[in-house]
Amino acid sequence: MGKMMIEHGHDEAEARRSVSFARTKSNTSSRCIQYSFPQQLENDSESESVSESGDIGDRALSSNMSSRSGRLLFSVENTAESGLVVPIEEEGAWPHDPTATDNVSPVTKSGDGMKNCEREVPRWLDYISSLLFLAVFGILGVLLRYVLEILFGPGNVGATSDQNYMYLDLPSNMVGSFLMGWFGVVFKGDISKLSAQLAIGLTTGFLGSLTTFSGWNQKMLELSVEGRWVFAILGILIGLFLVAYSIIFGIETAKGLQWVLKRTGNNRKSTFECSWKVNSPKRHLVVSVILLLTLASLWTICIALEIRKFKKGNSESRLWLACLVGPLGVWIRWFLARLNGRGLGKSGLLKWVPFGTLIANVSAASVMAGLATLKKVVSTKDCDTFVGGVQFGLLGCLSTVSTFVAEFHAMRESKHPWRAYAYALATILPSFIFGTLLYSVPVWIKGF
């Protein structure tokens, strides 16, 4: 009997030590997770943010709808930033914390306070409005790109030309990058408060179409074909330098203006936002109808002018065709932008790479090189007009420098600035190589 009691006491002691060891191990694991998990989340969050700094495509509508519905979006990034540690219970039960409801209540109250100024907008109306904004602003971007090309070209100012590293699209790329610092970085949040679709139209539509990467790459290919390799290299390096500092200058000037506006008109800001905010189905519908009529008018004018000018084969005939096909390039680029910040595979490898923008730029540059070869092979006025319009409109709007340079700038300002130059190299080098294979090699072989 005594031996059995001793063994029973020994078993109880072993059980207590096992439970104590398990709890100690669990606490140690929790502390390890507490210290290591936020660091990993911080790195992942930074990689995702730099990749999404330029554009995230139609995912912006989903996030905007979630914020309008008043739901509490509890993300691990916010948890890490606020210092909260999510407990991992041994038995799977979550203890009731009376302070938890107190922590959430301010968010709920703020959501209730916005009900007077916001109503739920159907998802289909969000999409239609966004597509119309992109189309209208995309056409405006094409028109301004053409004006800047003519203004700074050989016939007027003479600052740019096809025979120089100061290529024809450089002014539009610089202006678009400068304005990206305004509307895509500093004032984008304020514009999104009025209308998320307006912000999309200005950045992805207008600035994305005002700037073009495929045109830039094609001009460098044409210089290299003629044996002007030094000019081609200078065009790439100087072009990257100028657009990179254009967005910096845009951000700095926009911050100065923002500071002035905050000091002068801060009291009327909330009233202005509530009065002009496009936040109800009725307002969305009115804006969509106006944009639809505007787009129909622009396309009607472009069709009429294209019919009159097509046979002449001049730059104007190329322009009107570009305005007709340009919105398609904007829409494709916008849908590709949803890949930004997602990474590769289920694990999200290389989240810092904006694959949507990368695919849009490289593919547009490659197709433009192929069409340039087609122009030389066919060599007719009608083919030159049609291909030129597709190059200037569809491919010019499919590729972008403004979004590219916004992502480049965000990477330079991050903890890993080398990623900016790796991303630039991953965009420029494949585009030039594919362009050489599709355009330069056939020209050298056939002697066009």
TrEMBL record:
It catalyses: fluoride(in) = fluoride(out). Residues 21-42 have a biased composition (Polar residues). Residues 1-17 have a biased composition (Basic and acidic residues). It is a multi-pass membrane protein. It holds the Pfam family CRCB. GO terms for cellular component: plasma membrane. It is found in: Cell membrane. Residues 1-63 are annotated as: Disordered. The chain crosses the membrane at residues 124-148, 199-217, 229-251, 285-307, 319-337, 349-374, 386-408, 420-445. Fluoride channel required for the rapid expulsion of cytoplasmic fluoride. This is Fluoride ion transporter CrcB. It comes from Cuscuta australis.
